[in-house]
Amino acid sequence: MIKLVGLIPLFPLIGFLINGFFGKKLSKSISGAIACISVLASFIVSVLVFMELHHAADKSQVVEIFSWINSDSLKIPFSFLVDPLSTWFLLIITGIGFLIHIYSMGYMHEDEGFSRFFTYLNLFVFFMLLLVLGNNYLVMFVGWEGVGLCSYLLIGFWFKNNSYNKAANKAFVMNRIGDLGFLLGIFLIFTTFGSITFNEVFGKVSAASTGTVTAIALLLFIGAMGKSAQIPLYTWLPDAMAGPTPVSALIHAATMVTAGIYMVVRSNIFYSMSATASEFVAIIGAITALFAATIGLLQTDIKKVLAYSTVSQLGLMFLALGVGAYSSAVFHVTTHAFFKALLFLGAGSVIHAMGGEQDIRKMGGLKKALPVTFMTMFLGTIAISGLPPFSGFFSKDEILAHVYEHSPALWFVGVLTSMLTAFYMFRMMFLTFWGSFRGTHEQKHHLHESPKSITIPLIVLAVLSVGGGVLGLPEFWGFNNYIGEHLDSVIIRKNPSIMPHDTEWMLMGLTVISAVAVIYFAYQMFMKNGVLPVENEKQLKSWQKLVYNKYYVDEFYDAIIRKPVDGISKAFHKFFDIQVIDGIVNGVGSTVNWISGLVRKVQTGHIGFYIMAMVLGVIVILFTTLMK
Amino acid sequence: MINGIPINYYILLSAILFIIGAVGVMARRNAIIIFMCIELMLNAVNLLLVAFSTLHNDANGQVFVFFVMAVAAAEVAVGLAILSMVYRNIKSIDIDLLSKLKN
Amino acid sequence: MLGYSITQWLFGILSFLAIMFGLMVVFTRNPINSVLYLVLTFFCIAGHYLLLNAQFLAVVHIVVYAGAIMVLFLFVIMLMNLNEDSEPQKAVITKVIAGCIGGVLLFVMVGSLKGAEQLQLQASGASQIGLVKNLGRVLFGEFLFPFEIASVLLLAAMVGAIMLGKKEIK
Amino acid sequence: MKGLCIIGGLGVLAMMAEVFKFKKWLYPIVLIGVLGAYVANFIEWTQLADGQTGSFLDHVFFKFNNMIRFDNVSLAFSGVIIITAFFWFIMSNDYFSNETSVVDHFSLVLFALTGALMLTAFTNMTTLFLGIEILSIPMYVLAASKKGDVKSNEAGFKYLIMGSLASAFLLFGIALIYGATGSFDLMQIRSVISAGNLPVFFYAGVIMMLVAMLFKVSAAPFHFWAPDVYEGSPTVITALMSTVVKTAAFAAFMRLFLVTFGGVNETWGMVMAIVIALSLFISNITAASQNSVKRMLAYSSISHAAFMLMAILANAPGLTSVKVILYYSLAYSIGSIASFTVLYQVSKKGDESYHAFNGLAKRNPMIALGMLISMLSLAGIPVTAGFFAKYYVFSALIATSYKWLLILAVLTSCVGVYYYFKVIIAMYFKKPETEEPVQFELGHALLLGITAMVTLVLGLMPDLIIRML
Amino acid sequence: MLTGLLIIFPLIASLLLFVMKGEGAKKAVLGFSIIEFAMSIYAYVTFKADAASKMLYLNCTWVESLGIKFSVGLDGISLLLVLLTTFLVPLIILSSFKTTYEKPNAFYGLILLMQSALVGVFTANDGFLFYVFWELALIPIYFICLLWGGENRGKITFKFFVYTLFGSLFMLIGLIFLYNHTGEVKSWNVNDLYAAGRSLTEAQQTFVFWMMFLAFAIKMPIFPLHTWQPDTYVVAPTQGTMLLSGIMLKMGTFGLIKWLLPVVPLALAKWGGLAVTLSVIGIIYASCIAIVQKDYKRLIAYSSIAHVGLIAAGILSATQQGVQGAVIQMLSHGINVVGLFLIADILMRHTGTREIDKLGGIRNMNGQFGVLFLIIMLGSVALPLTNGFVGEFLLLTGVYQYSHMFAAIAGLSVILGAVYMLRSYQGIMLGEKKDSLGTFGSLAESDKIVLLIVCAAIIGFGVYPKPLNDLAEPAVKALLQNLK
């Protein structure tokens, strides 16, 4: 089956092609079915591959599809790498992808772009699979940019709305900034090691100087920053919520945004060689985690809350990567994929029920109208808040333990982040599902639980969110950390934890207690006191205003990047190009004309002058040649 | 030294006459006088040729003078014909009036 | 006389006169006077020819220039009735410039004409080259072709002059 | 030599046409005569000894007491002159039929041609001088030949005065050289030069002759007469001046300065370079802002003269420079004749400006095409003859120390393209004032066809000419 | 033989066209161009079978006295460019079917004439022949622009003509200089010129380098010699613009590869940095300007400057990847830009304007067009699995080996390119339809076919560029051997 790994991306590609070419002629159900089946087929193959690899002796198998780019020493085949890391991600992508495809059948049913949506979605899955399957950095980059494209297409799915289009453009451009870093990283890898195939490169790393490795690691990390929405390239992600909700769930929560983590894990050898780069990754991750979490506190759009939460969680994962806890990061990717997809899908269900309304100030008391949604979302919220024994608890705890080992200060940031997370998540839950309904009558009239195609994925994901923790039970509890073992062959593992068990217990206890305390505080605030987010921005206090407006980062970027670039461009165009350069060119022409006008005057028409000129000419010539 | 006179003197003399002619061409507006000045220049050349002819004791120089004379005569004939035609048209032989063609 | 031979005296006087008359040609206002001065200059030049033992040439010179060409000039001047001092004059500045240019030209020429001393001097006095017989031999011998072709020149001049001179017949 | 005799005889014959009343037959007779002269010339060419690519002035076919000598080079240039003259006669057929003094015109042109042919073959200062005068005097008359037109008078007058002055300088130069070398014979002068030890005034003589010749080829700063005379003269006469006269002047120039004074070229090299630079600059720059196509062509002829002078300046080994000039003068003559033919036709109403060409492509596409090709050739665009002409000049000059001239030549060529293309733009782009087609008579159309073809054929196979010498 | 035929055939065809009348010419010219394409495919097959096949070479004397030969032949690079030319010309012709031109026979005749000259440029193995074809290519395009162009064309096309001629005259001087150094028996043969160039001193090489570089830089165009280009592109008729940007621009880059790189290695080592700097500045500069363009055609024009700047930088880096990338990118850019200009033309025909601000919401009216446009745009921003990516990646790799910094700066075009392309796509296609716009209608069959072929090529060569690489790689390798 491993030899047939090419089938995994092939199925979604076929789905894409069918829907792309014939989507309009097919009925909605057929079109959706094709998309779902193609992903399901991939999932099945993935599972088979996963199983086979699990038993195989060779944990890293290369499958070459065709020769792609050849240029002297630069040989880049289009080939896939099947190893524990890629298969793990294959499962997440195809699995969650399949659920979301199902969900979308219901969610997008009324949309006129139904088949187009599935076309894009299949294309996304295809590229995402390429990303994780690629055997070299360039194939990875293909997937990398490809998912960026799909993200662009899906954010701007409702292309009649120009603000959505702007968000899509923003996402694409910001990703491209990261991609440039990635690309430069690839170049550096190529010039240093003469190859960009993973195994070849990793085999030679030790020969390279630390400086080069740091440079490579940082350049690659720039790519990750873009894709995984880290400071300073995170602002596109909240805007990306313009896309349909399943997209937010699949792309902007579960899979694409974790590509950065995948890449760092894949290249972990560089990071483990370079302390500087690791430290940098950790700090960026920590800052992002905290920063995004604070913004999340005051958001009123249900999807925006989740978006910032995603950014924050991604920050947490990078923090893990920075401290060398690669498998913990993958673990958190996995659990995060479960509960964040769940939360987004739940939110989608709410929005669906509310007729498109996304503002939590207009919701409230939906618990009764949407029981399944409520239940599943509630489980997801608990999971993300890190309460045991939900999956989030295990993954987050594992990370925090490793962070503590590395630096207590960062650990404190992590804990703070998870407290904030618990707070705003419960804030969202309380405001949405409890209390009284604050929307219009019409909305209230239309409130209803979503169809099966929506609820079933919710339930599945809820189960996974709850039980996902078993994949990585803490070692000091005496369990085998499944993920850790699984990824053993691809990861430079830190030495097993040397912390005393009681310290670990204490840390775990602290985080749980703090989370519970925060939830209680939220409960007090929103349930007991019924505090509502203010309607009008003017009523906010100044610090709140700052946070509410996301620290004015967008405005800041606008002022220091977009406007100057536009200004410079205009100056280049209007002044430099037209006036200076073309001015010089045209100036040559007009100068010729001008001189011509002058020289013409010399031809006076007076013969006396001509004669004089001639005689003068004779004099000058005689003088210069003979009077030396 | 020709008959006791250095050749340089002849060269100088004809140069002076030549230049007088040239100055005349430059300084006068009357076309006829300009023609005359050109004749003067040609004569200066003739004188030089004869002087060199004697110096080299070679008849070619003097024969050449004949041709110069023939040409001078021809030029004068044509020149005066043109002049009279110009005069017929503009009733003047002032060369400064003939400056329609310019720039 | 004063250490100069008669030839030298004659050379000096003729040269002085030639230059003076030459200047008068240029500076006289009345064209008729110019013509006459030019004739005088030609006579001086003829004198030089005699000094240089070019007797035949001197005679031809008088006949062609003084006798034919200058008469033609006179005819034209009279035909056009330019017998006055009314000729418009060039601006003084032009004249000054012309004079200056002439001066500079003289300077340059004098400078460039030096070096004639190196020429090998021929025995002189007994020269027979200026005689008709000798000239005729050269002219109709070596210079036959130019002589013949000069006829074309004269023909062309004649045709041209006639063409320009005659009235347009419509 | 036979060619020269035939042309001269034709001139005399033409004079008699009035008296003997065969005026009507004169035009065909002259055409046949010119063709005959070409054939005679060609026969002489074929009778030349083998190994025609020998050094200059070898392979004498005819000579006359060291006065005139028809060698391979002179025969080649004679051929160019005669064939150009033949084209010219075709071009100016109706000019003659409109003219009252047709006989005089014919004889004058033929006499001028005689002079031009002399200039290709002289070996003596006497024949040089006579040749120049025989060429010039009829041209003075022809320039002034529109008797009632003040402009034409002015042109003739200016030409005459300036030409006489140049002759005076030429003569002074000849006299000085005679004084220094004791001879008028070019070969003898050359041997004296190679013996060395010349007085300074010899060099002055060379310079004066150079000035006179530069005047004849209208190089700056001795070019002032050219635009005025070209503009004032009747168009066909201008065509004659810019082709036959120029070719002849260059043939003479070449004999003097490549052969006779070749030994002292360090004297005149730098002078020539500066003159070329000045000519290139002034001509092209001034041409750029002209409104009259005729005047533009006058300036362009100065610029082409500068290019040909570059070939002389390069003084390339063997016959290279000569070949270049031969090729260049042929290419230029052909191009000029074609453009003057068109100009002559479209300016019949008196408008010689660019407007006269407006919309010519619509009014008569074939003629416009002919003009287009000649303009491209004059501008030096491949694969026309004009391109190879320029190419040869460049390649001759690049081996010398005057490379800076090339840069200037390129820059000014671009300006040149500007004014040639103004004509093209007018023909193809501007709206015509009237839609009525321009009628061209068969002779002119044929002429344009032939010139266009020759231009292209020479552009594709330059060896046809280059291999001749 | 075959190569000679590739040059001669369009020439004869164009002469035939000139005597044809009106509408018949349209079909005939398409037929001719397709036959030409088929012939070039045959050449490709022959080349694949035996690269040294006699069929591919023609070598006959032209001007014997100067050692000029009519010597043409195909190597990997020139074959690719010939294929590009013969591939694009039918598309260009097809794209004109919806536009009615006055005197179509002359119009198409000139296009074929141009094709003949272009094939000549790409195949010439003789320096002089190269120059002649180089100039010849200029004349038809000049007339295409002059006669069928837009507003103010007289001045603009003239500027274009003189500007490029100016450069090429300097190239002529450079070539003659090389020729004069080819030893006892002068020769214009490309290998002799290479040898001559390498025998020069550094100062002489520098002279030749700048003389030739000027010509190529103007043709491409490289900053700051580019100002003729946007105006000309805008004013030219669409087919003229396609020819200019799709093929003619490659003359400059091709010239760099074949006629400059191997000739003057010393000068390249010394002055290449400056040239690369100019190219890189041009990339950023043109990209920036493209961002603020209002006219879509002008935007593409500037984007073309940016692309070609990268190509030039890649070539001048003189690395295998750089040059090979340049070759590939030349093809990709040719194909993409034809598509983009056709889109500009379609916009103009369907809506009467190309101003981005006045357009909008077209995707609502014609989704198919929206998708085709999207694909071409993505090819142009070099998204992976489009043809643009392969070239751009190799180019940047090459430049990176030359200088890390330049690669980083040049890489900014990746971002800026996305900015202006997406912005313009959004402005034109997305959002709500503007009230001022009429109905868009459906695409004409001919347009649709061209766009589909272009899209197929974009994706096809993006996914599987091996055929191109197989041709380019050995040729570039052999060329770079010359540098050592």
CATH fold-level label of one domain in chain C? Four Helix Bundle (Hemerythrin (Met), subunit A)
Principal-axis shape of chain B equals elongated
Largest interface by Cβ-Cβ < 8 Å: B-C, 72 and 85 residues
The CATH superfamily of one domain in chain C turns out to be NADH-ubiquinone/plastoquinone oxidoreductase chain 6, subunit NuoJ
Number of helices of chain C: 6
Radius of gyration of chain C over alpha carbons? 21 Å
- Tally of separate helices of chain B: 3
Description:
The complex is a heteropentamer of chains A (628), B (103), C (170), D (469) and E (484). Chain C has 170 residues and is mostly helical. Chain C has 6 helices and no strands. In chain C, helix 2 (31-51) packs antiparallel against helix 3. Chain C is globular, with a radius of gyration of 21 Å. In chain C, 38% of the residues are buried. The model of chain C has no long low-confidence stretch (mean pLDDT 81). Helix content of chain D is 76%, strand content 1%. Chain D has 20 helices and 2 strands. Chain D is mostly helical and 469 residues long. With 484 residues, chain E is mainly alpha-helical. Chain E has a domain at 264-484. In chain E, 77% of the residues lie in helices and 2% in strands. In chain E, helix 3 (76-95) packs parallel to helix 13 and helix 16 (387-402) runs antiparallel to helix 17 (404-429). The radius of gyration of chain E is 21 Å and the shape is globular. The model of chain E has no long low-confidence stretch (mean pLDDT 88). Chains A and D meet through helix 24 and helix 25 of A and helix 7, helix 9, helix 10 and helix 12 of D.
Short description:
Chain B is mainly α. Chain B has helices at 7-27, 31-56, 60-90.
Main attributes of the structure:
heteropentamer; C: 170 residues; mainly alpha; Four Helix Bundle (Hemerythrin (Met), subunit A); 6 helices; D: 469 residues; 2 strands
Topology:
The complex is a heteropentamer of chains A (628), B (103), C (170), D (469) and E (484).
Chain B: H1 7-27, H2 31-56, H3 60-90
Helix pairs in contact in B: 1-2, 2-3
Chain C: H1 6-27, H2 31-51, H3 55-79, H4 92-113, H5 132-140, H6 144-165
Helix pairs in contact in C: 1-2, 2-3
Chain E: H1 2-19, H2 22-49, E1 58-63, E2 68-72, H3 76-95, H4 104-123, H5 127-148, H6 153-180, H7 190-199, H8 202-219, H9 228-235, H10 238-260, H11 265-291, H12 296-317, H13 320-351, H14 362-365, H15 367-380, H16 387-402, H17 404-429, H18 445-463, H19 466-481
Helix pairs in contact in E: 1-2, 1-4, 2-3, 2-4, 3-4, 3-10, 3-13, 3-18, 3-19, 4-5, 4-10, 5-6, 5-10, 6-7, 6-8, 6-9, 8-10, 8-11, 9-10, 9-12, 10-12, 10-13, 11-12, 11-17, 12-13, 12-16, 12-17, 13-15, 13-16, 13-18, 13-19, 15-17, 15-18, 16-17, 16-18
